[in-house]
Amino acid sequence: MQKSIVIASILKPVSDTRMYEKFAQTLSMNSKYKVIIVGFASKKIPIGEGITLVPLFQFSRLSIQRLLAQLRFFFFLTNTKPDLVIINTHELLGIAILAKYIYGIKVIYDVRENYFRNVAYGRSLPILIRWPLALAIRLTESFYSLFADFFFIAEAGYAKELPFIKSKFVVLENKVSKLVINKIPITRNPSDNKFLVCGTISEEYGIFEAIDFVSKLRTRIPEASLKIVGYCANGRLWKKIAKRIAGLEYVAVIGGDELVPHEIVLHSMAETNYILMPYGNLPQIRHCFPTKIFEAVALNCPILISYGEIWNNFITNYSAGLLVDFHQVIPIEVIHEARSHQFYPHSTPNAIYWETQENLLQKAVIKLF
């Protein structure tokens, strides 16, 4: 008899890369598992053998519907009674634990982010709200985690940052799926001057520094262009960005205030000459290794990235890009250096692929059954 596994998140779409391309695709390879993804509604819902996608949630980021989403999820678990639920967000953790003791469901908490630091040090909320909310999140995680069966963490650094996981965890990094990346043709023209910012659009990830970099560069290279491909969850910030780029014919946008399918992000990386990553040296991202680095390496896309302790050696060892101080640098000098630099002189390292993580995921699930 098949074991039923639910992978759930409130804000991530059902087509989310980690939930669908990685976890669900890996677990569905075992015919003993029936995999169900519960998440936010998505315009493009993929079809995978042995995988059912349930777009259970659809609401604005700050609304009463977000609170009711937990109740909807409880009714869903009541109706399906899965054998295992993998929770991708702290908001559903309490409901999952409740269902565990009512229906005997096993619970894994997949910690994708340090939510405490994201809220406490982020800029998306008023400063008077940040710390009380961050502390409430940490207390919620710490309490309900006492009853979780196991943990997945997306960053090795979380083992030190998150004391509530103790020793019941395995690190599952957000490496790139070889199965997915092999379907993306590399179409970039070396003679172009195309720059890309992609993924999560936020101040912390340097959206304004990227715009300024290309704007300054155009005084020396008029044909330089910037494409912004990704989603900005902060409506006020997106209005600020839209105002900043209004009238700039060299800036194109895909997404912005809408979710962007992962496939479109990858195609954009495959056609650009440089991916810009002007990350700030901030507590909430200082110990996070960007998934975009794995994806850029897989697509041989040169990276221009801020200095960061966690990725400096990786960028240098694989000759994947240049380390740049975006607050001090003169853009044309960076491009001159980039043009004389040999990027990716060796074959693509196997270590960047999700397939190196699959066995860890499968073993952890088997132990619970």
How would you describe this structure to a colleague?
By secondary structure, the chain is α/β, with parallel strands linked by helices. It has two domains: 188 residues, Rossmann fold; 172 residues, Rossmann fold (3-Layer(aba) Sandwich), CATH 3.40.50.2000. The protein contains 14 helices and 13 strands. It has a seven-stranded parallel β-sheet, sandwiched between helices. The protein is globular. The chain starts with a strand and ends with a helix.
Give the count of helical stretches.
14
What's the alpha carbon Rg, rounded to whole Å? 21 Å
* Order of strands, widest sheet: 3-2-1-4-5-6-7
CATH class of the largest domain: Alpha Beta
User: Would you identify the CATH architecture of the largest domain?
Assistant: 3-Layer(aba) Sandwich
Distance between the termini: 12 Å
Strand content: 15-25%
Structural class: alpha/beta
In total, how many domains does the architecture comprise? 2
Q: Based on CA inertia axes, which overall geometry fits? A: globular
Main sheet properties: 7 strands, parallel
What is CATH's topology name of the largest domain? Rossmann fold
